[in-house]
Design goal:
The structure is a single chain. The protein is built from four helices and four strands, in the order αβαββααβ. It is α+β, with helices and mostly antiparallel strands. Strands 2-3-1-4 form a four-stranded antiparallel sheet. It folds into two domains: about 30 residues, no CATH class; about 100 residues, 2-Layer Sandwich (Alpha-Beta Plaits).
């Protein structure tokens, strides 16, 4: 074993002993479990640009919640019409959490509760799809 190879081996072994991970070329670490929380909102006044912007303002406050790992806002895309596509909603929120516990913190967080209290008058319907990595 050359000096450099031995040094590399000792450094990797030391890191492993400390609980760190060492990556090797071509080997990926297993993905962390994550929960996807996808929410769709239908506005009471779908033609109101003011209500749309107000809802976006409110939803945007949710990204401050510490357990949110990814946060994306969307509106229906102008994709070709197909029977399987529902583009009747006004806004979609796509968030990712490390796990169900992180999602549960989000649900009970003061910012989330304030959002519902302050902005729920803008929508007629909310539909949620939660999924976990498999």
């Amino acid at each position: 074993m050359t000096k450099n190879n031995r040094r590399s081996f000792i450094e990797k072994a030391s890191l492993l002993a400390l609980g760190a991970t060492v990556s090797s070329p071509g080997v990926t670490a297993p993905a962390k479990p994550s929960l996807i929380h996808h929410v769709f909102f239908w506005l009471k006044n779908p033609s109101s640009k003011e209500d749309f912007e107000k809802l976006i303002e409110g939803i945007s406050t949710l990204q401050k919640i510490e357990t949110v790992q990814d946060f994306r806002l969307g509106k229906p895309a102008n994709t070709p019409k197909r029977d399987v596509i529902d583009n009747s909603y006004a806004v979609s929120l796509f968030t990712v959490f490390n796990d169900i516990a992180g999602h549960d913190v989000y649900q009970e967080h003061a910012i989330h509760k304030k959002f519902i209290e302050s902005y729920s008058h803008l929508w007629t319907k909310v539909q949620v799809y939660d999924s976990i990595n498999i």
